[in-house]
Design a protein that fits this description.
Length: 490
């Protein structure tokens, strides 16, 4: 048996830029290995929901995100170490270019993750209309940071055997890095795209067919045995980060204080029931966010306005992001569900919503001059643009009282939405977050608070914002007691 946190076969699939094909290749490698009986633990570098869905489908188990902007390095390290042992090989898909980060030092880049986890990199390169120059590019990437170990190259969009031979011989001769596969230009698009990425798996009825096709591409064009040797030859995973020996500690609240003994103790059985709206309209959830609620004693109950007539008996509701605009007609048609949420919110029911959930809590969605009523909990109307209206990491400062975060707390998250505010009928005091990075909802502010409802464009990760889960479970517990007429302390 492997010693925990030490010998972990692992590999990073990276690229020179976004759109180079690394997601499809990562899906194919994972699915092909899985078909051979190899168990894979999938990971995605960065704040991504869509790619993680595809990687999870290919592996047959949850995919976890590794992001050093949202999550402290120590927790990223420990999350990887704990989840990597679920499989025989850990496969990490990078994002954007290998060295692309948020600053000149490459902070939050795939290269940073490669060094943090001491993991070999395989570089996927788009070879369209290029030959020997690719050797210079690979050589530059290899020499740019000696601590990043590039152990293989995959050629993508190869025009033919002559093209492949020139690329392969040039790279292997000048870079002394093996070419581990060459994928030709494919005539058919097996993975539908939207908004600079793949369509989410719940919206694609033939998702498994696409994964199976990616596996066949990997089997035909990649040296899967050589890729496996790269993963198996990875050095032992270090037991320390930045010179400090790793210690497993309890989560901290955002202001740095240790979790109280009361919160360390599980909620009395049965715990509060927290509903999670999860379907093809609302699908963007980090596994750790749901796990954090359950670890604190909550019972999670999945519900759907696309499938359910109304809400079951719940003590709180969590509505994640997604694409409610693609299901606006169906969401509007389920009036009983919408009315139930509004009625509960008026009675103090705790609701936390992100992005798509924020839109669902508004009054209306306006799409191409057609208007679709939503729950009407919040006085806001949304329309949509063809260009991103919020895209990237966010930092918010909590300035107003609310049921989930202490005033003065700084929260790191990320935004990704094409929706925009068409009409805002609230007041500035209703927006309890001030944006220090990112766009937010209105006038550089975010976080609409109404009674026990808080809705925001920013997505958060529970490992980086542990106080969120504590507040969710606490508020749900208080509401549960109030329903029964029991006294409760705030």
């Amino acid at each position: 048996m492997q010693q925990k946190g030490m010998n972990v076969p692992r590999i990073i699939i990276s690229a020179l830029r976004g759109g180079a094909g690394k997601t499809v290749l990562s899906i194919g490698i994972i699915a092909a290995w899985k078909a051979l009986g190899i168990s894979i633990a999938p990971f995605k570098k960065g704040p991504d929901y869509i790619d993680t869905g595809w990687l999870a489908l290919a592996a047959g188990r949850p995919c976890y995100n590794l992001d050093t902007f949202l999550i402290p390095q120590e927790k990223v390290f420990e999350s990887f170490r704990s989840h990597a042992h679920a499989g025989d090989i850990a496969v990490i898909e990078g994002n954007r270019g290998l060295y692309d980060g948020i600053d000149m030092e490459g902070s939050t880049s795939t290269a940073e993750i490669a060094k943090l986890l001491n993991t070999p990199v395989v570089l996927c390169i788009n070879c369209t209309k290029s030959t020997r120059t690719m050797a210079a590019v690979v050589s530059g990437c290899d020499q740019f940071d000696p601590d990043v170990r590039i152990k293989g190259v995959i050629l993508n969009h190869v025009a033919g055997s002559r093209h492949e031979n020139i690329l392969r011989s040039s790279i292997e001769h000048h870079c002394d890095i093996p070419v581990l596969g060459a994928v030709p230009k494919l005539k058919r698009q097996y993975f539908p795209e939207r908004h600079m990425g793949l369509v989410p798996t719940p919206e694609h009825a033939w998702a498994q067919d696409s994964v199976d096709t990616a596996a066949q591409i990997a089997k035909r064009y990649l040296d899967l045995d050589a890729l496996r040797r790269v993963a198996q030859d990875a050095d032992p995973l270090r037991s320390e980060v930045s010179g400090r020996r790793m210690e497993v500690r309890g989560p901290r609240t955002e202001d740095g204080g240790q979790r109280t003994e009361a919160l360390k103790t599980r909620i009395e059985e049965p715990g509060p029931r927290i509903g999670i709206i999860k379907d093809s309209a609302f699908q963007f959830y980090y596994p750790e966010n749901i796990e954090a609620l359950e670890l604190l004693g909550a019972q999670t109950v999945f519900v759907s306005p696309l499938q359910d007539d109304s809400l079951p008996d719940l003590d709180a509701l969590y509505i994640g992001g997604g694409f409610p605009e693609t299901h606006a007609k169906a969401l509007a048609a389920n009036r009983i569900f919408r009315d139930k949420i509004k009625s509960l919110a008026e009675g103090g029911f705790p609701i936390y919503a992100e992005c798509g959930g924020l839109m669902y809590l508004g009054e209306e969605l306006v799409l191409e001059d057609r208007t679709y009523p939503m729950t009407g909990v919040l006085p806001i109307v949304f329309s949509f643009s063809k260009k991103p209206q919020g895209h990237g990491y966010s930092i918010v400062l909590v300035e107003g009282e609310n049921p989930y975060f202490k005033v003065g707390t700084k929260i790191r998250g990320h935004e990704f939405h094409y929706s925009k505010v068409l009409k805002w009928g609230g007041a500035d005091k209703d927006l309890v977050f001030r944006m220090q990075r990112g766009k937010g909802i209105h006038n550089s502010r975010d976080g609409i608070c109404y009674k026990n409802v808080l809705a925001t464009y920013s997505h958060i990760h529970a490992l980086g914002t542990p106080g969120w889960a504590e507040a969710m479970v606490h508020n749900a517990g208080v509401y549960k007691k109030l329903k029964k007429g029991q006294p409760s302390s705030k």
